[in-house]
Amino acid sequence: MMKKQLFLTAFCLGSFALQSLSFCGFYVAKADTKLFNKTSQVIMVRDGNKTTVTMANDFKGNVKDFAMVIPVPNVLQKKDIRIVENSLFNKLDAYSGPRLVEYYDENPCSPRIQYDMLESIQYNNAIPTSISMKDVKRNKVLGVTIEAQYQVDEYDILILSAKESDGLKTWLTENGYKIPTAAAEVLAPYIKNNLKFFVVKVDLDKLNEINGTTNLNKYIKTHDNENIQNLRPIQISYTSPKFMLPIRLGMANSTGAQDMVVYAFSKEGRVECTNYRTVKIPSNENIPLFVKNKFGQFYVDLFERAHDKENKEAIFLEYAWNISPQFRGAKCDPCVGPPPIFTDLTKAGVNWAMNNGNQASSNVFFTRLHLRYSRNTHPRDLEFQVTPNKEHFQARYILTNTAVGDLSCNAGQTYCATVIKNRVNELENLSQLTSWSTVEYSGYVKEYYDLLKDKNILNEVKSTQKNKQPWLGVPSNESRLGLKIALFLSVVFLLTFAYLIRQKNPLASK
User: Fold this and answer.
1) Fewest CB within 10 angstroms: 309, 359, 472, 503, which?
2) Is the pTM of this model over 0.85?
3) CA–CA dist 427, 34 (Å, integer)
4) Residue 334: cis peptide before it, omega within 30 degrees of 0
5) Which pLDDT value is given to residue 440?
6) DSSP E strands: which ranges in 176-243?
7) 447: pLDDT confidence band, cut at 50, 70 and 90?
């Protein structure tokens, strides 16, 4: 504990020289995946050509209606399939999510001594199958082959290959899998590319056995063993030169946009999408104090605006950091909790976090990506690459608690003028980030304006915060259409002008 306190003290001493009027930043709030409706979460680990994918399941309802169909490049072995706990996703989400941090200004008329500030810091294998000859003949008619069949804990798993999409859809329907009506057209491209299909159903008896609820109905008649929430995530590993995530099947029965958060791990650096733009979410912006109590809605609206500004196509970077056990630097600023430890990384599939000699790795890079997608905006599966970019980044928003007490001294008056300009800047940032109307918050600025003895001092000071620049995003569809029309008219004008010149001067064309 003493070691942690000493580390924090050293960190604050270093930052004190850079921002003499502020305390060290404290984590205040986070914006996790629960803020967004229809959000799926995926962990992707890339090591050479090996990919490990862990899929969180937000299914709620009767388990008899549950089915999962995932394209995979080859026939998976039982050792390639694992079940993990939901707590792994909860930890990664909480640790890497967008965060709100606050600083505290000192009163320049009665500054505290440095040690007072420091005292305020607290560190808080395939199973046998019994397939009848009738089933085999039917499968052959439909062009479907069962390549492998496993039971892994509460899940019954098949690896299928198929010759055509209608046959596969029919086979799945006849065998009790709930498949959306639009599935055939989505399955077709995967079949054409010779992919296999990882197909999952829930074994209700096994699930009740694991949950310890097998005999509960004997005593609690109203308990519904079939109505399940929070099924455990499934993890698969495979080898392929392609680093991709199939999302088209998930949109087959979608009625609108969906959100997806990808937690990606690599040895080299950031993971980025190659067939859609990867851009940083706006970050490190100063925002008004009153956002503290509505940070969740603030980030939802910020993401919505960023999504629109990027033509609803971009994938947003929300966190990127070296979280290697041997990395000695800070793994966030501020941290919302301890970083993932060896066991977390191993469960996620980061097998190199510790080598055979029990030595900690120094090359575990963690990337968090956030995507909002629909059939119209993202008709292709996501393709990724591991980059050598190790620049650290986090979605981070800053509150500044202003000084309290008497501010009538000369330094205090200068401070008040600075606060006025800072607060104007914060309101402008808020408006540009979220499209919120900020005119109604004039009292937020007036509070310190009324403390000025001489208003002319406002001409002598500048804001200590950066101004939010107008967003230069991808042009909208309407803008693109306007550019095309303007270009077409320009070409017509030039051709007409050239024709008229030739008519007046026939020698010009010879």
Assistant:
1) 472
2) no
3) 27
4) yes
5) 93
6) 196-202, 227-229, 234-239
7) very high
Q: Give pLDDT tens digits for 139-170.
A: 777 889 999 999 999 999 999 999 988 899 88
Point out which residues pair with 261 in neighbouring strands.
Answer: 41, 370
Q: How far apart are CA 326 and CA 318, in angstroms?
A: 23
| DSSP for residue 350 | -
Number of structural domains in the chain:
2
> Which of 398, 426, 453 is the endpoint of a domain?
398
Measuring CA to CA, which residue among 100, 101, 173 is closest to residue 138?
173
Q: Which domain holds residue 498?
A: 485-509
Q: Are residues 502 and 366 in the same domain?
A: no
Look-up: residue for tokens 């600083």?
103
Q: Tell me the three state secondary structure of residue 411.
A: helix
Categorize the per-residue pLDDT at 108 as very low, low, confident or very high, splitting at 50, 70 and 90. very high
Q: What is the mean pLDDT of residues 86-92?
A: 94
- Percent helix, percent strand, percent coil in the chain, to nearest 5: 35, 25, 40
Q: Return the SS3 of 27.
A: strand
Residue 366 and residue 491 in one domain: no
How far, in Å, CA of 93 to CA of 33, rounded?
A: 7
Last residue of a domain, one of 360, 382, 398: 398
Contact between 168 and 144 (Cβ < 8 Å) = yes
Q: Which H or E run contains 68?
A: strand 68-72
CA distance 278 to 387: 12
280 membership: H or E segment, kind and range: strand 278-280
Asked whether residue 441 carries a pLDDT value surpassing 70, the answer given is: yes
Q: In what helix (H) or strand (E) does residue 263 lie, and over which residues does it extend?
A: strand 258-266
141: part of which helix (H) or strand (E)? helix 133-142
Contact 144, 177 (CB under 8 A): no
